[in-house]
Specification:
The protein is α/β, with parallel strands linked by helices. The protein has a single domain, classed as Glycerol-3-phosphate (1)-acyltransferase, CATH 3.40.1130. It has eight helices and seven strands, in the order H-H-H-E-E-H-E-H-E-H-E-H-E-E-H. The protein has a seven-stranded mixed beta sheet, with helices on both faces.
Length: about 260
């Protein structure tokens, strides 16, 4: 039954994505805000499909911690789920993403029209300078920027591998950063077909105010996210023992390497 439900969801998820991209083409005429509204519709419909087909719901905590206006949003990255599920709480957002994604027909067009930040990762220093310049312009408009601090998905319980990019942007732009902990990887494991029933928990943590040195910021960001994520994983494992295979067997270190 788990396999059948997962297969049904995956089929409906991609069908829903394709239909919305086609039906939503007129939003490109009306600009960024219209495209971002379509993205939130995609998010809500995908969460609904996940709940009714797989029995996987979501709980969002700490909404009162989300600041108004310009900020960096720094979520833990365990699965594809958080790439679409968090946007409902931000009105004018952008993601940092690799330039190659903008080459995908339809999907890439939406990324560009939606004002997302695409960078060429071939040259790290050039990419950081480009990112900072675009981030400053974005923050001047009061927008929110999603940056996954580890850059790529990591399984629940894997040792943290935070990159310097988020600290560089924080230092150069002078905006607050909201860390986000979650346990989505227990229910939507990376590189796996199955979707497990249960409740994905997301926690928006207290904001890190501007002004810290880069190393101090990165250490504090990692400490907050990893501590809260370990707690959410342990909580989910108690409620849903079938997720134990994806839970950490020992505490993960919280100091940047």
């Amino acid at each position: 039954m788990l396999f059948i439900r997962s297969a049904l969801f995956n089929f409906l998820f991609y069908l829903n994505t394709i239909v919305l991209m086609i039906v939503g083409l007129p939003t490109m005429i009306f600009g960024r805000r219209a495209v971002l509204s379509l993205a939130r519709l995609w998010s809500r419909s995908s969460l609904w499909l996940l709940r009714v087909t797989c029995g996987t719901s979501a709980e969002f905590r700490g909404l009162e911690n989300i600041p108004k206006g310009a900020c960096i949003v720094a979520p833990k990255h365990q699965s594809f789920w958080e790439t679409f599920a968090l946007v409902n709480y931000f009105d004018d957002f952008s993601y940092v993403l690799k330039r190659e994604l903008t080459f995908i027909p339809f999907f890439g067009w939406y990324l560009l029209r939606g004002g997302q930040i695409a960078i060429d990762r071939a040259n790290a220093q050039t990419a950081l300078r480009q990112l900072t310049a675009k981030a400053n312009a974005l923050f001047a408009e009061g927008r929110q920027l999603f940056i996954f601090p580890e850059g790529t998905r990591r399984a629940p319980g894997a040792p943290p591998a935070y990159k310097a990019g988020v600290a560089y942007v924080y230092d150069k732009t002078g905006v607050p950063c909201i860390p986000v902990a979650l346990n989505a990887g227990l229910f939507w494991p990376r590189r796996r077909f199955l979707r497990f029933p249960g409740t994905i928990q997301v926690e928006f943590l207290p904001v890190i105010a501007p002004g810290l040195k880069r190393d101090a910021f990165l250490q504090e960001l990692q400490r907050r996210i990893e501590t809260a994520t370990d707690r959410l994983i342990a909580e989910a494992a108690r409620q849903h023992p079938e997720t134990a295979a994806f839970s950490p067997s020992k505490p993960t270190p919280h100091n940047p390497a």
